[in-house]
């Protein structure tokens, strides 16, 4: 079989007309100034061969190109070399990486892993208290602007006194504000936000005391600041891994952060209980609090959840002990409920 | 056009042809998105490479197709290096500055940011174009870009600053500088492109378009764009090839308004769908009003992204057809003066450009 072909030698873009003949070994190229033999195993498809289309070939060892415009050529060549159905990476540019690239790869990976794995604890530990407080205040302002905050002096005093009893050595700034759902958040620098909805949701002072103890335990371990640094670092990493595609990248951050976050939450639960014991505050009926919470907000479960499942938290909190004093007397409880619900 | 002996004789005219098929573009897009979702986005670099390979190999000039030789791993490593060496230090430095400085000095961080971003955007554009050119070939010969990314970044920063203080009146000089620098640095084989656009010659046209910008809702800029492209190509040659651009401002406005209508139509459908879909959900739910609007917003965002994605191949087709129809090449490619080069190409690429979401050849 033979066709007329157009050939460029890979050194100049000048085209030469030549005869192309297929034999058992490969293609024989015969032109005025060119006489070459391309073996089948050396021939690459610049564009995947398709029946009826011009054939565009390259050679493994050079940048030469061969085009056969005859529409019957593709089928005939595919019979000899079926791999030409796929496009190949042609050799002229595709090169191996040098050693330096792999050293840089190692360094860059180390830097990024540090940011995610070891960095947050270290950086959070080294950060001056005033900086942490600044981040905390900024977040507080975004989360709950002044207009959404509870300003009832008596109610705030009740909640702040309770926090001080639970963690006498910590500097805490507690605020109560509307957050849209029963919740509480620990922020960097000892800032804690309790939601009005949580005050309304709680049926006993024990429940409020437990929620506060949980957040105070977070503060004791510097969890909020560590989490802040970790998520910031992960956002940089997710940008790298995804070339900046936002939604998927954020899903990645959530997925990567979840296991760590669940561990931290479980620790805050158990340390919170210990805190209640140490302050001699009664802490029964916490499991029923979790069950009611689940009924209201739906179960939180699975790998992506940032908190342990509510069922697991209820199990961990089961105790019948009637030891200890009630966290608040009736008057204080009333003041809190009336002032900031 | 396929005259082999002379490789396009002098006096003849040739166009670049686009052979991309809409159905294949949809298949390409669908598989890319699927793999991106499965890999939580990491496939992006390989997706971009597949897309370019398709586009390059379906553009034909004088009978031969363009070739793209880039690899996904090169883009991935490029991004990784930029993150570790540039983005991470920048993020740390700026957050430290924000935390350490008192409120009155916060403006310093803004200035620092502007300088860093301006410089990095310019340098990133240069590096991205160099990467793409060194990965592009035609008839087996590579393209390339000479020059220094740092110098381009510095000038880019300076001219961006001029644009700001002149309320964009500096634009014609900016554009002339931008394309002159990039084009004269571009080479095919060992032949450099020659390009001599002059911003001053376009200032009159620009000023009129600039004054008409508000009453025409920005459409007047299409006239400047077309005038600039014509001026640019008339003053650009590559190894004996001359170029002209034969579109009118009306053609460009049709292209843009058409794209706008296509995107607008599917976004309207998406809005309608997200409202019907969320209404029953909203009526029976205990969510607060704030959370409801956030939920509707999020659902619309997802629906909108899906909707725009479904028309992307149409927009690509329109753009490729537009540019392939309107650029006309004349003169003769001086094939005997062009030789392949062996000069070095960067091993990894494009991190900066990708980091700042800046597409220079859009
Ligand atoms: Zn917690």
From TrEMBL, chain A:
Provide one Gene Ontology cellular component: membrane
What CDD domains does the record point to? Answer: M48C_Oma1_like
Where along the chain is composition biased (Low complexity)? 310-319
Give yes or no: UniProt keyword Lyase: no
- What GO terms in the biological process aspect are recorded for it? proteolysis involved in protein catabolic process
The annotation note on the cofactor reads:
Binds 1 zinc ion per subunit.
Q: Is Ribonucleoprotein a UniProt keyword of this protein? A: no
TM ranges? 101-119
GO molecular function list = metal ion binding; metalloendopeptidase activity
- Where in this protein does the record put region Disordered? 301-328
> Which ranges carry the Peptidase M48 domain?
174-318
Q: Which UniProt keywords apply?
A: Hydrolase, Membrane, Metal-binding, Metalloprotease, Protease, Transmembrane, Transmembrane helix, Zinc
Cofactor(s) listed? Zn(2+)
Protein family (similarity comment): Belongs to the peptidase M48 family.
From the Swiss-Prot or TrEMBL record, give the protein name: Peptidase M48 domain-containing protein
Its ancestry begins with: Bacteria, Pseudomonadati, Pseudomonadota, Alphaproteobacteria, Rhodospirillales
From TrEMBL, chain B:
The organism of origin for this protein: Roseiterribacter gracilis
Record's protein name: Membrane protein
Entries under InterPro entries matching the protein: DUF898
Q: Keyword annotations for this protein? A: Membrane, Transmembrane, Transmembrane helix
Transmembrane ranges, per UniProt, are: 25-47, 75-101, 107-129, 156-174, 203-224, 260-283, 295-316
Record's keyword annotation contains Transmembrane: yes
């Amino acid at each position: 079989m033979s066709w007329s072909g157009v050939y460029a030698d890979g050194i100049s873009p000048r085209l030469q007309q030549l005869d192309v003949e297929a034999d058992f070994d490969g293609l024989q190229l015969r032109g005025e100034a060119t006489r070459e033999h391309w073996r089948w195993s050396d021939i690459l498809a610049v564009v995947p061969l398709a029946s009826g289309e011009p054939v565009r070939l390259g050679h493994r060892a050079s940048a030469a190109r061969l085009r056969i415009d005859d529409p019957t050529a593709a089928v005939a060549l595919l019979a000899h070399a079926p791999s030409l159905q796929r496009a190949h990476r042609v050799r002229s540019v595709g090169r191996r990486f040098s050693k330096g690239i792999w050293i840089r790869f190692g360094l860059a990976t180390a830097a990024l892993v540090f940011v995610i794995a070891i960095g947050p604890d270290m950086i959070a530990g080294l950060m001056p208290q005033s900086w942490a407080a600044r981040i905390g205040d900024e977040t507080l302002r975004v989360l709950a602007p002044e207009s959404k905050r509870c300003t009832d002096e008596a109610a705030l005093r009740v909640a702040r006194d309770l926090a001080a009893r639970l963690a006498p050595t910590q500097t805490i700034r507690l605020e109560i504000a509307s957050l849209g759902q029963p919740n509480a958040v620990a922020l960097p620098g000892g800032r804690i936000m309790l939601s009005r909805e949580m005050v309304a949701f709680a049926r006993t002072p024990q429940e409020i005391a437990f929620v506060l103890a949980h957040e105070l335990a977070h503060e004791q371990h510097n969890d909020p600041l560590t989490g802040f640094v970790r998520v910031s670092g992960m956002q940089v990493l997710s940008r790298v891994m995804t070339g900046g595609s936002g939604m998927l990248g954020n899903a990645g951050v959530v997925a990567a952060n979840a296991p760590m976050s669940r561990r931290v939450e479980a620790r805050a639960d158990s340390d919170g209980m210990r805190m209640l014991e140490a302050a001699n505050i009664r802490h029964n009926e916490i499991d029923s609090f979790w069950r009611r919470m689940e009924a209201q907000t739906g179960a939180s479960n699975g790998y992506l959840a940032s908190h342990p499942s509510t069922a697991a938290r209820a199990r961990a909190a089961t105790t019948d002990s009637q030891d200890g004093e009630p966290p608040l007397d009736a008057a204080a409880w009333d003041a809190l409920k009336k002032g900031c619900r | 056009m396929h005259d082999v002996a002379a490789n396009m004789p002098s006096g003849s005219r040739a166009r670049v042809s686009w052979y991309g098929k809409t159905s294949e573009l949809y298949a390409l897009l669908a598989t890319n998105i699927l793999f991106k979702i499965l890999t939580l986005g990491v496939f992006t670099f390989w997706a971009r490479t597949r897309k370019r390979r398709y586009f390059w190999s379906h553009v034909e000039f004088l009978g031969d197709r363009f070739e793209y030789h880039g690899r996904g791993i090169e883009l991935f490593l490029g991004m990784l290096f930029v993150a570790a060496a540039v983005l991470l230090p920048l993020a740390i430095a700026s957050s430290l500055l924000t935390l350490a400085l008192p409120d009155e000095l916060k403006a310093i961080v803004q200035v620092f940011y502007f300088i860093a971003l301006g410089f990095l955007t310019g340098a990133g554009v240069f590096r991205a174009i160099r990467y793409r050119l060194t990965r592009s070939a035609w008839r087996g010969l590579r393209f390339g870009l000479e020059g220094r990314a740092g110098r381009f970044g510095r000038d880019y920063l300076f001219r961006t600053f001029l644009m700001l203080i002149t309320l964009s009146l500096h634009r014609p000089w900016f554009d002339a500088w931008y394309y002159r620098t990039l084009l004269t640095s571009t080479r095919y084989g060992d032949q450099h492109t020659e390009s001599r656009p002059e911003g001053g010659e376009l200032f009159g046209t620009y000023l009129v378009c600039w004054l008409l910008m508000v009453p025409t809702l920005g459409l007047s800029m299409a006239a400047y764009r077309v005038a600039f492209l014509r001026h640019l190509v008339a003053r650009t040659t590559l190894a004996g090839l001359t170029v002209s651009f034969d579109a009118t401002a009306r053609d460009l406005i049709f292209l843009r308004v058409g794209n706008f209508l296509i995107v607008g139509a599917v976004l309207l459908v998406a809005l309608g769908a997200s409202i019907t879909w969320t209404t029953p959900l909203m009526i029976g739910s205990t969510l607060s009003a704030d959370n409801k609007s956030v939920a509707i917003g999020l659902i619309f965002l997802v629906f909108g992204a899906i909707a725009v994605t479904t028309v992307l191949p149409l927009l690509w087709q329109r753009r490729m057809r537009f540019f392939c129809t309107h650029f006309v090449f004349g003169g003769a490619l001086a094939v005997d003066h062009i030789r392949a080069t062996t000069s070095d190409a960067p091993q990894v690429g494009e991190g900066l450009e990708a980091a700042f979401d800046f597409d220079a050849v859009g």
